[in-house]
Amino acid sequence: MLKKRIIPCLDVKDGRVVKGVNFVNLTDVGDPVDAARAYYEAGCDELVFLDITATHEERDTTVEMVRQVADQVFIPFTVGGGIRSVEDMNRMLKAGADKVAVNSSAIANPQLIKDCAEKFGNQCVVVAIDGRQEEDGSWHVYVAGGRKDTGINLIDWAKEAVALGAGEIFLTSMDKDGTKSGFDLGMLNAVAAVVDVPIIVSGGAGNNEHMVEVFQKTPATGALAASIYHFGEITIGQTKQAMQAAEIEVRL
């Protein structure tokens, strides 16, 4: 059985790590390279970096950050934010990223997923999906940092993304983001029922019990957290001990 992964997420804005609630009210947390090194030394399995306000002008800054991180951590890491072309993805992979996440750009141009998968392999292509539950109980895909409802059904989009070549789904519940109230298990299980690739789940981690619960009650292969680790509420080591005690396969 594959070991479950604990993955800190570093939201980067203007070269700094930030954290918010429901995608707003951002607080400065620190330097991304320093944070990456600290998490690597603490025993995380992977890292995710999201340039949450990526623009073309900031791309060089992100590439340099990726290069510096790659020099200091020796675990897989994913970079996302503002990736709009095969060349954008190529630059991130050349700088040292192992995987690259696409979100808004893939909605605007689904062919991008296929083109990137054909050039770099499915294992390098992560499709990030930000979802929010609607009044009728369905989930919609949101883009532009969670500001715009596409009207697209989240389950349908997850299925299409994998058919196009996504090797992994990075699924974030906007309703749960930063709330520390537990992961959205319903949304996660609904997506897992229609795709056959690994899913990283994000949004809602508040304690070790939530991290254990998501692996006991869903097929998630990785659980992503930010606030609880950024602010020292719990350590990655404590989370892994709790998982081991619950007989969940984890790399200690």
Characterize the structure shown.
By secondary structure, this protein is α/β, with parallel strands linked by helices. A hairpin with a 2-residue loop joins strand 2 and strand 3 (24-30). The mean pLDDT is 92. The longest helix is centred in the N-terminal third of the chain and has 14 residues, at 59-72. The chain has a single domain, classed as TIM Barrel, CATH 3.20.20. The chain contains ten helices and twelve strands. The protein is globular.
Task: Draw up the topology in text.
Blueprint: E1 5-13, E2 16-21, E3 24-30, H1 32-42, E4 47-51, H2 59-72, E5 77-80, H3 86-95, E6 99-102, H4 104-108, H5 111-120, E7 125-133, E8 139-143, E9 148-153, H6 154-164, E10 168-173, H7 185-192, E11 199-202, H8 208-217, E12 222-225, H9 227-230, H10 236-245
Parallel strand pairs: 1-4, 1-12, 4-5, 5-6, 6-7, 7-10, 10-11, 11-12
Antiparallel strand pairs: 1-2, 2-3, 7-8, 8-9
How many strand segments? 12
Q: Major sheet, described briefly?
A: 8 strands, parallel, barrel
Examine the secondary-structure arrangement and name the CATH architecture: Alpha-Beta Barrel
Unreliably modeled segments: none
Shape descriptor: globular
- The helix/strand series, from N terminus to C terminus, equals EEEHEHEHEHHEEEHEHEHEHH
Instruction: Enumerate how many helices there are, as a single number.
Output: 10
Structural class: alpha/beta
Radius of gyration: 17 Å
Write down the CATH topology. Answer: TIM Barrel
Order of strands across the main sheet: 1-4-5-6-7-10-11-12
Beta-strand proportion: 25-35%
Termini separation comes to 15 Å
- Average pLDDT: 92
Helix-residue proportion: 25-40%
